[in-house]
């Protein structure tokens, strides 16, 4: 590892997986440099410009570049960073059974937490902002019901008898889940409002990562606050 | 590791991720026992199975009391815990990251293509229209200048992808028919795993043949 070398990451902090990467980097103090990429909500896809496409033909964020090694997919980035750099082992434990629990959650995350939480935000904030239309209440109710099901499973399975999703200590799995579940806050909705067990878990995550949590969420909170202001000004 | 202990796996070989696990176990000769499940008969909803896996999904692995779900996790755990050739899930961080990158991408890109088998008519159209895009990306990104999805040698990523792409065969559809580059990759995968490939696909081929016979 060359002295003074910085990991480069391209992040859109309105993107849930990007926030997870930002939090891990901040928490673990891995020297990094990040470029803010702004996605569709604010302006027309800056990450679709030519330079960015050359770097990442899939036009996704987050992207990591470490000494010329280009990596996409937040799962892979988080696990690579936790492996390659000198970080506390709890982030991605080495013991096979404990590691498998993290891999189990991150796989499940893709087809459960991620799509269901994202859908609520997309229907309540993104689509109306892009098209100027009203929220499709029927679709939103279905999305909220799917999310409820996911939250039930998080509580009854992953958080059954343990303080974090994969065991006694925080892992990259908790970062991915926590950042996904904050997304609907952008539309003023706290999906954990009626969920004391998950709220306690969220508090534990926030305690474990300290100010890194709010640092990563600044853009999302600002969006929420702007929307509140617009709402009040209309009255 | 207790002598003579067998890894137990609960598999329905009509399920793509189950076939990937089956192939790895067969190929690597990890001592194992397969408990066959038939999802179409609702066997995943029995009380006993639900106790084992409240998510009521397959595959499930039980290794000396350790219960694990999600094929990604199972494949990576087996490749880590047992004495298998390192290429399946390389240890070097950059090479390992490539496999993790593919398996993450797989969930939202390759996996939904399984619906091209027509098993869920409501999702068929969407699956078919996304199919070309996904196959394009597999060819132009993962297989660009390398024989396997994550490098020069076969990994668990290739097993997951190959088993997903065979699924539409059950409905009589070869999604790689017009794709020579992917066909060559598929042949390399089949060569690398030998008879384990057809062994895992027996049930699917039988389904295809029964359907053909009915036409």
TrEMBL record, chain A:
Keywords: Cytoplasm, Transferase. It comes from the Eukaryota. The keyword Transferase applies. Residues 5-89 form the GST N-terminal domain. It is found in: Cytoplasm. GO terms for biological process: glutathione metabolic process. It catalyses: RX + glutathione = an S-substituted glutathione + a halide anion + H(+). Its main location: cytoplasm. It holds the Pfam family GST_C. Residues 95-232 form the GST C-terminal domain. Its EC number is 2.5.1.18. InterPro entries: Glutathione-S-Trfase_C-like, Glutathione-S-Trfase_C_sf, Glutathione_S-Trfase, Glutathione_S-Trfase_N, GST_C, GST_C_Theta, GST_Theta, Thioredoxin-like_sf. SUPFAM superfamilies: GST C-terminal domain-like, Thioredoxin-like. GO terms for cellular component: cytoplasm. The keyword Transferase applies. GO terms for molecular function: glutathione transferase activity. Homodimer. PANTHER family: GLUTATHIONE TRANSFERASE, PTHR43917. Belongs to the GST superfamily. Theta family. This is glutathione transferase. It comes from Oreochromis niloticus (Nile tilapia). The lineage of its organism: Eukaryota, Metazoa, Chordata, Craniata, Vertebrata.
From TrEMBL, chain B:
Keywords: Cytoplasm. Pfam families: GST_C, GST_N_2. Residues 5-86 form the GST N-terminal domain. Residues 92-215 form the GST C-terminal domain. One of its GO terms (molecular function) is glutathione transferase activity. The keyword Cytoplasm applies. It is found in: Cytoplasm. InterPro entries: Glutathione-S-Trfase_C-like, Glutathione-S-Trfase_C_sf, Glutathione_S-Trfase, Glutathione_S-Trfase_N, GST_C, GST_C_Theta, GST_N_Theta, GST_Theta. GO terms for biological process: glutathione metabolic process. Gene3D superfamilies: 1.20.1050.10, Glutaredoxin (3.40.30.10). GO terms for cellular component: cytoplasm. Its EC number is 2.5.1.18. The keyword Cell division does not apply. It catalyses: RX + glutathione = an S-substituted glutathione + a halide anion + H(+). Belongs to the GST superfamily. Theta family. This is glutathione transferase. It comes from Oreochromis niloticus (Nile tilapia).
């Amino acid at each position: 590892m060359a002295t003074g070398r910085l990991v480069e990451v391209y992040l859109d902090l309105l993107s849930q997986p990007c926030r997870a990467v930002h939090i891990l980097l901040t928490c673990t103090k891995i020297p990094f440099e990040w470029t803010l990429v702004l996605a569709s909500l604010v302006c027309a896809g800056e990450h679709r410009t030519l330079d960015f496409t050359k770097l990442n033909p899939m036009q996704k964020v987050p992207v990591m570049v470490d000494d010329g090694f280009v990596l996409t997919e937040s799962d892979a980035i988080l696990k690579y960073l936790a492996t390659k750099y000198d970080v506390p082992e709890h982030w991605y434990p080495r013991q096979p059974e404990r590691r498998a629990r993290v891999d189990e959650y991150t796989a499940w995350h893709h087809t459960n937490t991620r799509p269901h939480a994202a859908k609520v935000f997309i229907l309540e904030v993104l689509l109306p902002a892009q098209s100027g239309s009203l929220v499709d209440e029927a679709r939103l109710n279905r999305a909220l019901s799917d999310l409820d099901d996911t939250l039930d499973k998080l509580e009854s399975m992953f958080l059954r008898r343990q303080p974090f999703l994969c065991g006694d200590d925080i892992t990259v799995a908790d970062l991915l889940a926590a950042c996904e579940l904050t997304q609907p806050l952008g539309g003023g909705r706290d999906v954990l409002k009626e969920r004391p067990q998950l709220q306690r878990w969220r508090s534990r995550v926030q305690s474990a990562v300290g100010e890194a949590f709010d640092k990563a969420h600044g853009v999302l909170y600002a969006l929420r606050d702007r929307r509140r202001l617009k709402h009040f000004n209309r009255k």
